Backbone:
DNA sequence: CTGTTAGCGCGTTCAA
DNA sequence: TTGAACGCGCTAACAG
């Protein structure tokens, strides 16, 4: 199977190579390989054998030239770390068989100029659709409506209500976190979150408030907002625990903050989860699985978001309405040892 | 600028649309837009105005059909988390202006079948080259030599010496770690690493040994290999510290292990870095910057790896030899508070 | 059943 | 200086 030459030596084989080897015209070869019915069985077999022998791979770009579709999607992101975009990419790939559609991934790095360049590049390559992934859940400026392909905004919604946006439901996430703590018997719940300039921080905070209201509880101390770091999680939790020694649970705005909270609790000689339960957001594996104990967290279900985005794009290509407005993806509670004692 | 319709309404404009609006032939329009000299200045201006007005974007796939190049690279990975592949992708993008070349990212998820599907998909889209990114530094099976485009293996080398592989120099990384600790005055150095089935673990261990030899030192206790988790870092460090209370430094096989080591040291009432210095590998930001104190680490310079890979691919397209064998990328020491006291 | 013709969007000859 | 004609690789119409 493997040739002896280096990569790049072997010339790309075309349909006409196959046709010549099989002794038929290119049209017949095309029909044979595409499973059209109007081909003699023997001829089809000859063509298929020839294609196999030459390891022929049809040029999808040439096909796309005719069909008006390239089987290609652009994923335009500014998520430097890939934390959000990778699950979304995988969800998009899953929405179809592997290889049926390929994904261009471009990182704009929060730079509008660079984003425009990438957008041009993607359109010039005639992507069938575009998925725009932000690095935070705050609205971002729309790409505009004069784009000739369907566009779906994921994670960060578009600021234009005419666009379709798919985002995690952070309010529900906050509510679910509190409901879980209450179900575990916690009554003295505190809240430490990240940068208050982020919608994610505020939305989760709103959900926390709703959850407390529903349980007839009041937050212990004030919600603490500063930044998304472990250090802040430690410092803020330390203050809260010292001022309110009766705290029996801390809702944290992210898994990193939660890790800081775990440290603060342990520094004070108290035990998680027996004395104080801790819950985070994001369900970011390296964070939640490395901690001691492992961290209960709210998973935003990003794969589902990516899968839904891809499905919407391709449904739109098939003539369906793309739809508009901001659609919320329900989160999922993942329980680990930081809220429920484990063996 | 923005149209009033929804996305997808506006038809894709072609060169002939531009030519018609400008009142010239497509050939002339093509020359005008591509900066060919044989066009009257006034004609060129008319064509450019028409292109602008219609916001014409040339179809690079049609161009590619002629040129034999698509300005497209395939990135075939099995790095589920995106830890390695994202920096490599960014390096590859940087190797050219943003948008000059676009990158298809495919995740094979350690599955050979899926990898073959993606490979076919990429070749059918006529990528100009292929970058294969593994999730560990152990050799992986070659894609073969009958691929019609240049292939570069990154992070995980190919098991075929005829292929070109670009990988981090883990032996050097281990050596540099020890050299740094020795330079900080440490003499009683222990070693905790990850899964001994990983070349990365063993290679770094070899480097640690070389560094110790060069300094005339012996490892305190045995190298501890198990897995890449924080938990293991804690447990192994605890054993070492209890059996060898004079340990003044721990070299850890990853940042996660190092975080576990930090916990173990603190649990014993000892201070990092004053009593015990700790150093990790990977320089993975959320890990190194969240810890207390921040973690000194060895950065494998993945962006440079990605950039180099992209450059090799495109140099090969321009006729240069692709080259072969395994090439090592030198790592970089990043000093933080876990080895040198900080204000 | 098969082959010929046409054309997808573009760049590059070559005549005019 | 411009435009008509050709071909990149492929598929869809038709004619044979």
Residues:
């Amino acid at each position: 199977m493997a040739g002896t030459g280096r990569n790049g030596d072997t010339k790309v084989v075309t349909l006409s190579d196959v046709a010549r080897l099989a002794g038929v015209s290119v049209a017949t070869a095309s029909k044979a390989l595409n499973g059209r019915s109007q081909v003699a069985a023997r001829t089809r077999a000859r063509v298929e054998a020839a294609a196999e022998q030459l390891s022929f791979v049809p040029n999808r770009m040439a096909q796309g030239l005719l069909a008006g579709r390239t089987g290609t999607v652009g994923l335009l992101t500014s998520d430097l770390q890939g934390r959000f975009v990778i699950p979304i990419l995988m969800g998009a790939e899953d929405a179809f068989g592997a290889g049926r559609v390929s994904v261009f991934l471009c990182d704009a790095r929060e730079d509008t100029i660079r984003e425009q360049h990438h957008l041009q590049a993607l359109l010039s390559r005639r992507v069938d659709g575009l998925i725009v992934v932000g690095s935070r859940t705050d609205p971002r400026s729309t790409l505009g409506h004069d784009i000739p392909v369907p566009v779906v905004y994921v994670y960060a919604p578009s600021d234009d209500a005419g666009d379709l946006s798919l985002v995690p439901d952070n309010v529900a996430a906050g509510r679910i976190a509190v409901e879980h703590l209450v179900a575990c018997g916690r009554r003295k719940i505190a809240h430490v979150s990240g940068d208050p300039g982020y919608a994610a921080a505020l939305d989760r905070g709103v959900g926390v408030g709703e959850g407390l209201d529903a349980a007839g509880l009041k937050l212990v101390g004030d919600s603490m907002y500063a930044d998304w770091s472990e250090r802040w999680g430690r410092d803020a939790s330390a203050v809260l625990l010292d001022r309110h020694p009766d705290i029996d649970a801390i809702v944290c705005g992210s898994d990193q903050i939660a890790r800081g909270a775990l440290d603060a609790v342990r520094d004070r000689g108290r035990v998680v989860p027996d004395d104080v339960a801790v819950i985070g957001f994001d369900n970011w594996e390296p964070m939640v699985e490395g901690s001691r104990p492992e961290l209960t967290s709210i998973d935003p279900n990003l794969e589902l978001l990516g899968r839904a985005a891809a499905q919407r794009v391709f449904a739109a290509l098939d003539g369906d309405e793309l739809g508009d407005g901001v659609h919320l993806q329900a989160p999922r509670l993942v329980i680990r040892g930081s809220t429920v004692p484990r063996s």
